[in-house]
């Protein structure tokens, strides 16, 4: 029985993603970075000691991405930094989806004054420009040496609102459906209706949004690090970029081009992987969602 | 007209909540609102923390014995009179900084938006007409790759390639430091040259997203029945393409155009910082870096006002251009 449902899950959700060209390439790119973050640091050692004799070396077999201003291997830093880049991005997307779903479902289901109050909260977060607000929040908390989870939460606070609005609209249209009415008439508890009847139908929708959040979470966290507002890992790509530009001045010497180029290449490739996967996922699952409406 | 009064009131409430939230955040942190500034001063001047805290209090104009409520009333009262507060770092009123910075930001935003919108609309409609052909795949793929590049990363690339490598563009600023602002042709030329970098960094990602949404909208409109009907009436393809398809596909985009301009007021912090371009975003970044919370709350209030005005204008514009939405 269990095996059967796993098989169904594979045919319903996984296989269509492997057939779609966009989501397949997106998955390959993301898998590559996840492998880099999980297995990479075990294979590639990190040596951060300065070696000025090897400053700004061009990419070679010894240094695949070349060396930076301090003569430190850039490839090693990228590999080790991927761990905090990926974990921060994934955690921030996860929190954003979690907050957005809970608030969205609550807004869609609750009526009266509570519903309106939640509506106003969503509206406020939609109107406040997220990036400046995130910067203020980070500046206020800067002296508290936040860890990955806390920074992810700071980022997620400014990402959840659009999702909550969409989810609440979905719930509003679902809750007038016959099967929800039926559960209500059977005197099922609210908990059951919310989590069993409604949440189940929202799962593909939530998954799409999780993937879509990757771009925003990535842009926000790299921007935050780039401004030097959260410094928990010197090899995070945003902090590397900050060092490259403001500490080492790599931008202003032609020799430093590969330094900046490889950091940017990795950031952009990771975001592109997220975009491709979300486009693919949408192409695959959207007709199904429309069918539910 | 009732709808607009309601909407305006609603946006006002949102504004007050948003500004109050930021005020509470900055002023009611665990500990002292001047804590961050004090740490900064202590680090910069190598002094005792207590001493630095006292200086920080003086700089921020905070009386540590005054209650938060009094401070809040003062702040809101000032804001309603159009006084955005005082910047301790620049030692001047925030209004003066806004007067100095806002024209540059508006200049860059308006040019960038105009360029990206007109090209994006054209490319998106073109790609949708050629759906499935190589040129469409090329445009859409390119647009989604560009979307993967955050604007500030693009700014770094532009600065490196055009300013450092090929020396075609200046390294930063709004005009050369050794030039007096005037209306001479050479000065205006320099101003335009200095704006090219920021404009490109803002316009290129925008263009990609306009292209993609216009392509989607056009494809959707092309499936509508009234298009088929227009074809059956024997109208020329060019008339259908411009009058029937493009105008209808553009409609939702014009509304988001207004909102987008509002958000851009504060959204280009990193781009302006990278180009040292003295707009609102540049000063916002500066305020963050030196923990100038007076300047920070002042500029943030301005940014929120921008968004709210833009949202309101968008509603209005939408009602004007779309005959299906009636002004009531």
Would you summarize the structure shown here?
The complex is a heterodimer of chains A (293) and B (328). Chain A is mostly helical and 293 residues long.
Notable traits:
heterodimer; A: 293 residues; mainly alpha; MetI-like fold; 12 helices; 75% helix; elongated; B: 328 residues; two-stranded antiparallel ribbon; 76% helix; globular
Question: How are the SSEs ordered, and which strands pair?
Answer:
The complex is a heterodimer of chains A (293) and B (328).
Chain A: H1 2-19, H2 21-38, H3 40-43, H4 74-109, H5 112-127, H6 130-141, H7 148-156, H8 161-175, H9 178-185, H10 190-226, H11 237-247, H12 257-292
Chain B: H1 2-27, H2 35-45, H3 49-60, H4 68-80, E1 86-87, E2 92-93, H5 94-129, H6 134-147, H7 151-165, H8 185-222, H9 225-232, H10 237-267, H11 269-274, H12 280-289, H13 293-321
Antiparallel strand pairs in B: 1-2
Helix pairs in contact in B: 1-13, 2-3, 5-6, 5-8, 5-10, 5-12, 6-8, 7-8, 8-10, 10-13, 12-13
Q: What report would you give on this structure?
A:
Chain A: The chain crosses the membrane at residues 24-44, 85-106, 118-142, 189-208, 220-245, 257-277. Chain A: This is ABC-type dipeptide/oligopeptide/nickel transport system, permease component. The complex is a heterodimer of chains A (293) and B (328). With 293 residues, chain A is mainly α. Chain A has a single domain (15-47, 70-289), classed as Orthogonal Bundle (MetI-like fold). In chain A, 75% of the residues lie in helices and 0% in strands. Chain A contains 12 helices and no strands. The longest helix of chain A is centred in the last third of the chain and has 37 residues, at 190-226. The two termini of chain A are 30 Å apart. Chain B is mainly alpha-helical and 328 residues long. Chain B has a domain at 102-291: MetI-like (MetI-like fold). Chain B contains 13 helices and 2 strands; from the N terminus they run H-H-H-H-E-E-H-H-H-H-H-H-H-H-H. In chain B, strand 1 (86-87) and strand 2 form a beta hairpin. The longest helix of chain B is centred in the middle third of the chain and has 38 residues, at 185-222. The radius of gyration of chain B is 24 Å and the shape is globular. The model of chain B has no long low-confidence stretch (mean pLDDT 80).
């Amino acid at each position: 029985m269990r095996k059967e449902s796993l098989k169904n899950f594979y045919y319903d959700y996984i296989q269509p993603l492997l057939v779609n060209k966009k989501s397949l390439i997106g998955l390959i790119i993301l898998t590559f970075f996840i492998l880099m973050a999980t297995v990479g640091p075990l294979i590639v050692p990190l040596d951060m000691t300065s070696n000025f004799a090897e400053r700004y070396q061009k990419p070679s077999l010894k240094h695949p991405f070349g060396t930076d201003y301090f003569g430190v291997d850039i490839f090693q830093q990228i590999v080790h930094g991927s761990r905090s880049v990926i974990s921060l991005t994934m955690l921030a997307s996860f929190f954003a989806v979690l907050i957005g779903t809970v608030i969205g479902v609550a807004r869609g289901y609750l009526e009266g004054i509570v519903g309106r109050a939640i509506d106003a909260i969503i509206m406020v977060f939609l109107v406040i420009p997220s990036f400046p607000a995130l910067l203020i929040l980070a500046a206020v908390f800067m002296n508290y040496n936040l860890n990955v989870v806390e920074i992810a939460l700071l980022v997620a606070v400014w990402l959840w609102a659009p999702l909550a609005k969409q989810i609440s609209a979905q719930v509003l249209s679902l809750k007038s459906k016959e099967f929800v009415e039926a559960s209500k008439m059977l005197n099922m508890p609210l908990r059951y209706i919310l989590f069993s009847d409604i949440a189940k139908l929202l799962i593909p929708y939530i998954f799409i949004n999780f993937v879509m959040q990757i771009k925003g979470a990535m842009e926000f966290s790299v921007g935050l690090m780039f401004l030097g507002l959260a410094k928990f890992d010197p090899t995070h790509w945003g902090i590397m970029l900050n060092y490259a530009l403001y500490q080492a001045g790599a931008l202003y010497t032609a020799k430093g081009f590969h330094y900046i180029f490889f950091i940017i290449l990795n950031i952009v490739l990771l975001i592109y992987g997220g975009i491709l996967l979300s486009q693919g996922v949408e192409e695959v699952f959207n007709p199904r969602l429309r069918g539910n409406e | 007209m009732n709808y607009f009064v309601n909407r305006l009131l609603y946006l006002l409430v949102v504004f007050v909540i948003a500004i109050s939230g930021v005020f509470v955040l900055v002023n009611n942190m665990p500990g002292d609102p001047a804590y961050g500034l004090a740490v900064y001063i202590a680090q910069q001047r190598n002094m005792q923390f207590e001493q630095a805290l006292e200086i920080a209090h003086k700089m921020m104009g905070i009386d540590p014995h005054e209650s938060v409520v009094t401070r809040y009333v003062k702040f809101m009262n000032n804001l309603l009179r159009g006084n955005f507060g005082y910047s301790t770092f620049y030692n001047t009123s925030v209004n003066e900084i806004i007067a100095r910075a806002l024209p540059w930001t508006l200049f860059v935003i308006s040019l960038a938006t105009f360029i990206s919108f007109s090209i994006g609309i054209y490319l998106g409609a073109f790609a949708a007409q050629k759906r499935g052909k190589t040129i469409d795949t090329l445009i859409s793929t390119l647009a989604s790759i560009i979307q993967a590049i955050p604007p500030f990363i693009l700014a770094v690339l532009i600065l490196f390639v055009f300013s450092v490598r090929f020396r075609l563009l200046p390294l930063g600023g709004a005009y050369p430091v050794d030039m007096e602002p005037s209306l001479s042709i050479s000065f205006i030329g320099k101003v335009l040259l200095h704006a090219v970098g920021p404009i490109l960094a803002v316009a290129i990602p925008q263009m990609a997203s306009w292209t993609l949404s216009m392509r989607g909208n056009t494809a959707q409109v092309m499936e509508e029945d009234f298009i088929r009907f227009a074809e059956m009436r024997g109208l020329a393809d060019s008339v259908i393409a411009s009058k029937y398809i493009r105008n209808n596909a553009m409609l939702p985009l014009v509304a988001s155009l207004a909102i987008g301009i509002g958000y851009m007021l504060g959204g280009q912090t990193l781009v302006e910082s990278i180009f040292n371009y003295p707009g609102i975003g540049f000063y916002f970044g500066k305020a963050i870096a030196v923990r100038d919370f007076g300047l920070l709350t002042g500029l943030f209030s301005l940014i929120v006002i921008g968004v709210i005005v833009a949202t309101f204008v968008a509603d209005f514009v939408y009602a004007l251009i779309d005959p299906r939405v009636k002004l009531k």
